[in-house]
Amino acid sequence: MSSSVLVKAFLDSDSETFSYVVSDPITNKGVVIDPVLDFDYKSGRTATTSAQTMLDYITAEQLDIEWVLETHAHADHLSGAPFFREQIGAKVAIGTEIKQVQKIFKEVFNLEKEFLPNGDVFDRLFDDGDVLQVGNLTIRIMHTPGHTPADLAYIVNEEVVFVGDTLFMPDVGTARCDFPGGDARTLYQSIHKLLALPDHMPMYVCHDYPPEGRSHEYETTVAKQRAENIHVGGGATEDEFVAKREARDATLEMPRLILPSIQVNIRAGHMPPAEDNGKVYFKLPINQL
Asked: What is the pLDDT of residue 288?
């Protein structure tokens, strides 16, 4: 880990999600990446236990967190971004192609007419190549579509990269591409943008689904991914990858929390509007995914 970029990982064991606090040790300014809102599907209850653990670290280290950075609209957990906005005033950012994702799922869920797929619920929408400055952290934005149209990677000080769901640990492989707007050939191209980064660069993943025999891990390197990733490593061609990825996707169930997660995450982590009884509800589309 570079001394100019401090990375603290937090595992939400329920969704097997890694969230990160990334900070500059000189100015103590930083960002949160992909925070989780705890959600019990059986009861419909939310909690902020995971986010509070991150906030406790932020407080203890006296960090000034300016932004929550989402790598994409997650399908496996609800975003905890609003917690950090409310508690410490952090702004929330995502890729500009979230507008395409919002449009797709506004139709899937038949959302209220007031919900506009224009990205305005986020504080900033990033384009490929944009740069965000936070203290001495220079965060370069890389658009990495394929899993969804809006996926991003965040490259910090050209020293470390946070890849979201695009790549997992080498022995797990790559993101699925069978969600609405996903595409395996597009993912292959995005992955090769990441694999063109320097060999030694640490790569931090958003999820780990460890094979039997090892515990959860979150850090690898570009070189290890290029050589060892079971889906795209070892010089796999685009056609080989697409065949392997699409065959794998055909065997996968939908993520357990995809239906509630998407409804929240395309709203920057906010819940749907309350109905006339003052209560909030999720929709359950039938035979659509």
From this structure: 83
Residues 6+ apart with CB under 8 A from 274: 280
pTM metric for this prediction: 0.95
pLDDT value, residue 248? 93
Cα pseudo-dihedral 255, 258, 261, 265, rounded to 10: 110
- Residue with tokens 């609003």, as numbered in its chain: 82
> pLDDT tens across 42-88, in order?
999 999 999 999 999 999 999 999 999 999 999 999 999 999 999 99
Instruction: Please report where in the chains the tokens 């995809």 appear, as a residue.
Output: 258
Task: Quote the domain boundaries for residue 112.
Answer: 6-253
How far, in Å, CA of 270 to CA of 81, rounded?
Answer: 8
Q: What are phi and psi of 109, to 5 degrees?
A: -95, 0
* DSSP 8-state secondary structure symbol assigned to residue 174: B
Q: Is residue 140 part of a domain?
A: yes
Q: Please state, in angstroms and rounded to a whole number, the distance separating the CA atoms of residues 159 and 30.
A: 15
- List 18's β-bridge partners, or say none: 11
DSSP string of 73-139?
--SSSEE-HHHHHHHH--EEEEETTHHHHHHHHHHHHT--TT--SSSTTSSEEEPTT-EEEETTEEE
| Domain contains 262 | no
Q: What is the pLDDT of residue 180?
A: 87
What total number of domains does the chain contain? Answer: 1
- Please identify every stretch of the chain with a pLDDT value under 50, giving residue numbers as ranges: 1-2
